[in-house]
Design brief:
The chain is of the alpha+beta class. It has two domains: 4-140, Beta Barrel (Lipocalin), CATH 2.40.128; 143-241, no CATH class. 18% of the residues lie in helices and 40% in strands. It is built from five helices and 16 strands. It has helices spanning 4-14, 32-39, 44-51, 131-142, 181-185, and strands spanning 27-30, 56-60, 65-69, 74-81, 86-89, 95-101, 104-107, 116-120, 145-150, 157-160, 166-167, 174-177, 191-197, 200-209, 212-220, 230-241. The strands form two sheets. Strands 1-2-3-4-5-6-7-8 form an eight-stranded antiparallel β-barrel. A hairpin with a 5-residue loop joins strand 10 (157-160) and strand 11 (166-167). Helix 2 (32-39) packs antiparallel against helix 3 and helix 2 packs parallel to helix 4 (131-142). The longest helix has 12 residues, at 131-142. The model is unreliable at 1-18 (pLDDT under 50).
């Protein structure tokens, strides 16, 4: 009963402005545009720069909460119905407008960057914030069978699974793509990922060009007292998408 008034107020404010009901906003929304761009051959870094920086929204209309992830941090906000859209407010006083355009959630230009659009995630609702985008990216960008045409395990097949597991590459059993923050910054103009086994690993530089994936050992060109600056070193693997 305590949620009836906020929902009724939201419905009243939204009526006459759009055909969408408050519950239409409910759920997790991911930046599918960035995933599609990367999957078509654009470098991951360029795709995220063009269609980011926000990668995922999680909206709980009943609790009047909205949170977003940019791949590095998660930020919680308070959801308030406005005359033409939703307003998300944050502790620092920032505000962000959200609306629906057909089946897409639209983030208006503002303090979070340019206009962005998001599609509803098919992942379970209990996936932690940011995880739905990550799973969809891993599946769309690196999913499927990759034949090892050069490097250890040549002739075999590798798989990068949506849960972060990697099989078929001699050595590592887990991977993570660097999406934002220091992890991505250290790679400079290069795309990078983390490969590990039994929680011990290292960063790698990779190049994804159509159906070819190259993995290079990362070389740090920074001074000892500087932030690492990773560049591609020796090429370890060449994989081809089957």
């Amino acid at each position: 009963m305590r949620h009836a008034l906020p929902l009724a107020l939201a419905a009243l404010l939204l009526s006459g402005c759009a055909s969408h009901k408050p519950e239409d906003f409910q759920g997790t929304w991911i930046n599918q545009n960035a995933i599609d761009a990367a999957s078509k051959g654009t470098s991951l870094r360029e795709a995220l720069a063009k269609y980011g920086p926000i990668l995922e929204w999680k909206i709980d209309v009943e609790q009047q909460k909205a949170a977003f992830s940019n791949g590095f941090e998660a930020v919680d906000g308070h959801l308030v119905a406005d005359k033409n859209d939703w307003q998300v407010t944050y502790d620092a006083g920032h505000r962000q407008a959200l609306s629906l355009d057909g089946q897409e959630l639209v983030q208006a230009p503002g303090q979070l960057g340019d206009r962005q659009s998001f599609q509803r995630s098919k992942a379970p609702a209990n996936v932690p914030l940011g995880g739905s985008f990550e799973k969809a990216l891993y599946q769309g960008y690196l999913g499927g069978n990759w034949k090892i045409v050069e490097g250890p395990g040549q002739g075999g097949y590798a798989q990068f699974r949506e849960d972060g597991a990697v099989t078929g590459l001699p050595g590592p059993d887990r991977y993570a793509l660097c999406l934002a923050g220091d992890c991505a910054t250290m790679g400079g103009e290069n795309d990078s990922m983390w490969l590990e086994r039994e929680q011990r690993g290292a960063p790698w530089i990779f190049k994804h060009d159509g159906k070819t994936l190259e993995l290079f050992q990362a070389v740090n060109r920074a001074q000892p007292d500087e932030m690492p600056q990773l560049a591609p070193g020796t090429r370890r693997w060449v994989l081809e998408k089957q």
